[in-house]
Amino acid sequence: MKKRVLSGIRATGRLHLGNYLGAIKGMIELQNNPDYETFYMVADAHAITTPFSVEELRQNRREIIIDYLAVGLDPEKSTLFIQSQVPPHFELSFYFSSVTTIARMMHLPTYKEKVKQYPKNNTMALLNYPILMAADILLYKANLVPVGIDQEPHLEVAREIARKMNQIYGTTFPEPQRFATKGEYIPSLTGEGKMSKSVEGSYINLTDSLDEIRKKIRSVPTASVVGKEMTPGLKTLFIFADLFIPNEVEKYKKSFTDGTLKFVELKDALAEAIYRELKPFQEKRKQIASDLAYVEKVIKNGAQKAKAVAQETLKEVKEKMGLS
Ligand code: ATP
Ligand code: MG
Predict the structure, then answer these.
(1) What predicted TM-score, i.e. pTM, was given to this entire model?
(2) How many angstroms does the Cα of residue 15 sit away from the middle of ligand 2?
(3) How far is the CA of 202 from the centre of ligand 2 (A)?
(4) b/e map of 184-196 (b: 16 or more CB within 10 Å)?
(5) Which of 5, 6, 19 to mutate to test the pocket of ligand 1 (most atoms within 8 A of CB)?
(6) Pocket around ligand 1: residues whose beta carbon is below 6 Å from it?
(7) CB burial class (10 A; 0-12, 13-18, 19+) of residue 107?
(8) Which of 120, 129, 224, 305 is deepest in the core (most CB within 10 A)?
């Protein structure tokens, strides 16, 4: 039997380089490996765990499906679907909450960060986020999850829930592992924290023009280089260099050590290399966005396929828990 893969992206905004390098590259690789059956969702319910606008959420759900298609996810090979269109995610997540303590959830670094980011939004939905994510993964009995390193604590929760459910109720959940990529952690352009959709000024979007990318990269703070220590902003630039201009990294490192590095030269070289990688995606995206009937069909078929698998798992869990 093929191994299963699940991943998702929150419908909180336009995709950025971190999403692409940390998650999507792995999603594409596994889709194209015949040993795996891949399920990729738009995590719209996860988007309501932080403050959101109804109109933007409605748009983002479809935009992310268009992004998926434009990066090369293929509905013939992968099940592409919208999370809230498959209600078993919510039902399973409630059953999982019965084997998860409040203390365990409150100690997660992601939870603490989001409370810091939105102090007025310390909701039950936010606290429950990792439980819903465990349900997302285990509903498909996925073994592998291509996500960035920021999601590792949530995967640990999913493994704990799988173990507990299997011990107590005799279910047959696998313990899902993260599928890591080279770009598993893309720092913010501000030099502080990670690149995030919901942090203004932190990201380069996959749809940015060369001019926009150049402007954003030029704004990465590099000025205050003290002695030979790299500032966080400069470290960020070298992470991009490793990923986008690997053959030139040594040259730039050497000129940094010599004290001859012109930051703007490195920045502009990076902007051009990043744009070169994004251009084919941008062209394909325009084409797909002009055929919304096709996009709607993909969404409808995806929900049907995901539901069929999800309902089977839910049935097994309900039987084993004495709920049917
Ligand atoms: P938000 O700020 O709304 O949480 P986000 O940018 O963190 O948005 P998510 O939708 O939470 O994006 O995550 C989607 C996928 O992208 C996940 O697999 C996540 O691990 C990955 N990812 C997000 N940010 C980065 C990053 N900076 N570097 C590498 N991977 C990332
Ligand atoms: Mg996130």
Answers:
(1) 0.96
(2) 11
(3) 13
(4) bebbbbbbeebbb
(5) 19
(6) 9-10, 12, 18-19, 21-23, 147-148, 150-151, 183-186, 194-198
(7) exposed
(8) 129
Which residues, at least 6 apart from 80, have a Cβ–Cβ distance to it below 8 Å? Answer: 40, 41, 65, 68, 69, 73, 298, 299, 302
Six token digits for residue 128: 């429950």
Nearest-10 crossing angle of helices 124-138, 152-169:
70
User: Whats the size of the chain, residue-wise?
Assistant: 324
Which atom in ligand 1 lies closest to the alpha carbon of residue 194? 27
Q: Strands, DSSP E only, in 105-243?
A: 144-145, 177-178
- φ/ψ of 33, rounded to 5, equals -100, 115
CA of 9 to the centre of ligand 2 (A): 8
Q: Identify the nearest ligand to the CA of 145 by its number.
A: 1
Q: Which ligand is nearest to the CA of 193?
A: 1
What's the farthest any 2 CA atoms get from each other in the chain?
Answer: 72
Q: Check: CB of residue 124 under 8 Å from CB of residue 159.
A: no
Q: Which residues pair with 42 in a beta bridge?
A: 9, 82
Contacts 24+ apart (CB under 8 A), 314-319: 314/88, 314/91, 314/92, 314/139, 316/171, 316/172, 317/92, 317/95, 317/165, 317/169, 317/171, 318/95
The per-residue pLDDT string of the chain (324 residues; one tens digit each, 9 = 90 and over) reads: 899 999 999 999 999 999 999 999 999 999 999 999 999 999 999 999 999 999 999 999 999 999 999 999 999 999 999 999 999 999 999 999 999 999 999 999 999 999 999 999 999 999 999 999 999 999 999 999 999 999 999 999 999 999 999 999 999 999 999 999 999 999 999 988 999 998 999 999 999 999 999 999 999 998 766 667 888 899 999 999 999 999 999 999 999 988 898 999 999 999 999 999 999 999 999 999 999 999 999 999 999 999 999 999 999 999 999 999
